[in-house]
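Weekly puzzle thread! Below is a chain. First person to post its structure in token form gets bragging rights.
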Amino acid sequence: MKKKETKKMTKDQALKDLDKLKKELFNFRFQKINGQLTSPSKINITKKNIARLKTLIDRKANA
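Winning reply:
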């Protein structure tokens, strides 16, 4: 997910994507423990996307 994509989102879309990303992160952590995770960088990318969406939600709430 890129910055341009997040800026175009509405608050509701951002909240839906945030929930989806949190579930993905949860699954990635379990895959890492079981040794099934093919690309460990997915965890960091997912965390960054979650932070971007949280920032976007805060900005939209304060605006």
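Puzzle host: Confirmed. Bonus trivia for everyone else. The mean pLDDT is 93.
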